[in-house]
Specification:
With 639 residues, the protein is of the alpha+beta class. It has 17 helices and 17 strands. The chain has a domain of 172 residues: Dna Ligase, domain 1. Helix content is 35%, strand content 15%. Helix 4 packs across helix 6 and helix 11 crosses helix 12.
Length: 639
């Protein structure tokens, strides 16, 4: 048999430039690998680990009379989060029911597990602190496992501080993370295939990579998504397959570390972007990982409803469904870009056309930060005394302070600048005050400020009975290190540029940065503009606030009916509705205050000066009159 001629040899579809994109974590390179790791039935696992419950024992976590998490051993009995405790017990008499930890009125700001919590909804408040603590341990274990892959520093990348990983890791929620594996995979590639190093110089960037020296890859330990119709497994793998295989090895080692050290199982998805990785992690639960190769993306997405893709639910999803009489990705793929533009604006049409084809350039953002923290309680029956309210403020202060510790307030990395109290009787009132910058933030400071705000509300009029009370902190700022940025006014050259870079505001946009449709993009841009003029009161309930109520993120139950908020189209379970309504209430109050403040400022601006001339500080002859100085003031003489 004769050897194949050189002109018949298959070339790699990838270039050295795209390989370098992998090194730098570029969102544009087709060799990019993103992982999404999701803890299996997280709240249930936390209780199983705490109680030492065997994996085969059915267990559910309850909040009052609702179920918020069900382990996998309980699911074959038909138990889900849509039924109540009594129904669950009928389906499975041996079911272990564990109530979440709670704060209790009159017992200070400390949470505890109590056997009678479910009977004391009027005096108890749910605490997520035990789950947050476990989440921090899991995240640290993941970082340690990734650091092993990053330990072999060589000449192929810049040196980094030991605590800084080459991989980007974004905590998407209490029980899920995104990891950009690209830089780690780049280093592993060059170690395993040293022939790739020869063409990494600038003059060869557009040259094609050599063919991988293998005819088959071993995927035995992964759940591999079937290839697209026109692809076959007999085709020799290219470098996009190789990098995905290395990525799967890395993720498997991370999942193994979490299990071996902490006894938690987690599922994972790997794909070329965040959207595909997240969809993949929910495909094979529990305790498995799903790999979506580039050659399998189209077939993989075709099996979904596009309303399951982030930012395609709610009103936009309803609009697209009504316009094209389908909600299936497979059918929407047959709609051309021109047809999409006849029903949608150009920006949304272009974004939609790409996203259903697997095009998502959103970055993994290690700096994802919440913008506000809220602790709230709806009272049934209403409370009727200052003593009761003060006891709840103590609980709110402890709850918020616990989350601030997690966010870095003790290390002075971030701190809130504003604290706000919301109070509802027949009328709704709110008051806010700055948090003194000279004071270290602790539980007592928050409690004292909250009590002061409550007494201001009481001074305004009838305060009892109170049906809802909440406390929030907002307007976060970076720690004291940024104060040095003023030196940039006194130095020049590279030093000034470096100081300017330190002082630049960090990106705090949505943690899942798909390109938003036009209407959402305008709203986000507006938020950027407001940053130049300072933080306004509506920041107290800004996007990204942390919900005070537990929410199980296990996606296996995503198809079950859920309550949809008529105001914002957010989907949720029934037991979350009350807290979500409270969030809208707080947001409406903030918006009302903002409008009242604007109206007051407009009135002051339009008010004539004492002599009936133009408003103070504006106008006058030549536009330079500053008006008469106030009593006790003097005008400075400028040379």
């Amino acid at each position: 048999m004769s050897e194949p001629q050189p002109d018949t040899l298959r070339n790699s579809r990838f270039t050295y430039r795209q390989l370098q994109g992998l090194r730098h974590g570029s969102t544009a390179t087709p060799l990019r690998v993103i992982a999404h790791i999701d803890l299996d039935a997280f709240y249930a696992q936390c209780e199983m680990v705490r109680l030492g419950t065997p994996r085969e024992k059915p267990l559910a976590v309850r909040q009052w009379d609702s179920l918020i998490a069900i382990n996998y051993a309980a699911r074959p009995f038909g138990i889900n989060r849509l039924i109540n405790v009594a129904e669950a017990r009928k389906l499975c008499p041996d079911l272990i029911l564990q109530h979440v930890a709670t704060f209790r009125e009159g017992e200070g700001g400390r949470w505890a597990y109590r056997d009678d919590s479910f009977r004391n909804i009027s005096t108890d408040k749910v605490s997520l602190d035990p789950y947050r603590a476990q989440s921090r341990k899991i995240l640290q274990t993941m970082k340690e496992a990734l650091a092993i892959w990053d330990a072999n520093d060589d000449d192929h990348g810049p040196k980094r501080p030991k605590q800084e990983l080459a991989a980007g890791l974004e905590k998407a929620s209490i029980d899920e993370v995104f990891i950009d594996l690209s830089p780690l995979i780049y280093k592993a590639l060059l170690r395993r295939y040293p022939e790739l190093q020869s063409g990494t110089q600038d003059e060869n960037r557009d040259g094609e990579l050599p063919i991988p020296p293998t005819t088959a890859l071993q995927w035995n330990t992964d759940c591999l998504v079937d290839l697209d119709e026109h692809e076959t497994e007999e085709d020799d793998p290219d470098w996009d397959d190789v990098v995905m295989l290395i990525g799967s090895e890395i993720v498997r080692s991370v999942r193994d570390a979490v299990w071996e050290k902490l006894s938690y199982t987690c599922s994972a998805g790997l794909g070329r972007n965040k959207m595909i990785a997240k969809l993949g992690s929910s495909c094979n639960k529990p305790n498995l990982q799903t790999v979506v190769r580039n050659r399998a993306v189209q077939k993989f997405l075709a099996g979904y409803k596009f309303t399951q893709i982030r930012m395609l639910g709610g009103k936009l999803g309803d609009q697209i469904t009504a316009s094209f009489a389908t909600e299936k990705v497979s059918e929407l793929l047959n709609v051309s870009l021109e047809q999409l533009r006849t029903k949608l604006d150009d920006h949304t049409a272009t974004w939609l056309y790409g996203i259903i084809r697997g095009d998502d350039r959103s970055e993994v953002n290690p700096r994802t930060q919440i913008k506000s923290m809220l602790s709230a309680k709806s009272f049934r029956p209403s409370i009727s005394s200052l003593d009761q309210a003060d006891k709840w403020l103590r609980i709110f202060a402890a709850d918020i302070y616990g989350r601030l510790v997690e966010d870095g307030v003790l290390e002075n990395r971030r701190r809130p600048r504003v604290i706000t109290l919301h109070h509802r009787t027949v009328q709704s009132r709110s008051r806010q005050t700055p948090i003194p910058g000279s004071n270290a933030i602790d539980e007592e400071l928050l409690y004292d400020l909250a009590k002061t705000l409550l007494r201001q509300v009481m001074a305004d009029g009838q305060a009892w009975p109170c049906s809802n009370l909440s406390l929030s902190v907002s307007s976060f700022e970076e720690g004291v290190s940024n104060n040095k940025a003023i030196e940039s006014f006194l130095v020049r050259g590279d030093k000034a540029k470096a100081l300017s870079h330190v002082a630049r505001p960090r990106d705090t946009e949505n943690s899942f940065n798909e390109q938003p449709p036009a209407d959402k993009k305008r709203r986000l841009d507006g938020g950027q503009i407001r940053q130049f003029f300072g933080h306004s009161p509506e920041g107290t309930v800004a996007e990204g606030q942390e919900s005070p109520k537990p929410h199980e993120t296990d996606s296996e139950e995503a198809g079950n009916p859920r309550f949809t908020c008529p105001r914002c189209s957010k989907s949720m379970f029934e037991h979350e509705k009350e807290e979500h309504d409270d969030w809208h209430f707080a947001k409406d109050l903030a918006n009302q205050e903002r409008e009242e403040s604007r109206a007051s400022q407009s009135l002051q601006a339009a008010k004539p000066s004492a002599r009936g001339t133009a408003p103070r500080g504006r106008g006058g002859r030549g536009g330079g009159s500053r008006g008469k100085p106030e009593k006790g003031q003097m005008r400075l003489a400028f040379q």
